[in-house]
Amino acid sequence: MSRDYKQFPDDDNGNVLWQMHEDGDDLTEAHEIEYSIAFSSEEKADQCAIYLLKEEQKITLFEDEDSNEWVVTIYVYMEPEYEDIVDLEEWFTKIAGQFEGEYDGWGCMAYVYDDEEDDDLVLEEEQKAN
């Protein structure tokens, strides 16, 4: 199958979505997509987390021990469509800037059925970082 560049543009987001599609992931099914914002300050991460909770977002907040950064992860249950992902990235980038953080990309679990393994569900993680 040839790539439809309207559905899968030639950029990081389009490339990840195309790879998910090529791997057999059903992009018409909703996925829980994780968007991340990184902070050097716990105080700013806390402020951002509270803001996102007030915006009725599902989040987690943790300290990454390797980088000593505080990471807010936002979980959005949605069909992984290019335009929607770009819109959310823009919104999360704006929010990150308001709290002196940096938008750090998105990822999700890909649900792929492998016919050679008796239709057992095979989980693969797809990641995209800016």
Give a short summary of the structure.
This protein is of the alpha+beta class and 130 residues long. It contains three helices and five strands. A hairpin with a 5-residue loop joins strand 4 and strand 5 (120-128).
Give an overview in words.
This protein has 130 residues and is of the alpha+beta class. The protein has helices at 12-22, 42-54, 82-98; strands at 31-39, 58-64, 69-78, 102-114, 120-128. The longest helix is centred in the last third of the chain and has 17 residues, at 82-98. It is elongated, with a radius of gyration of 16 Å. It starts with 11 loop residues before the first helix and ends with a strand. 23% of the residues are buried. This is Ribonuclease E inhibitor RraB. Residues 11-108 form the Regulator of ribonuclease activity B domain. It holds the Pfam family RraB.
- Order of secondary-structure elements: HEHEEHEE
DSSP strand (E) fraction? 35-45%
Biggest β-sheet: strands ordered side by side in the sheet: 2-3-1-4-5
How many domain units? 1
CATH topology: Alpha-Beta Plaits
CATH class call: Alpha Beta
CATH architecture: 2-Layer Sandwich
What spatial form do the alpha-carbon principal axes imply? Answer: elongated
Percent helix, as a range, is 25-40%
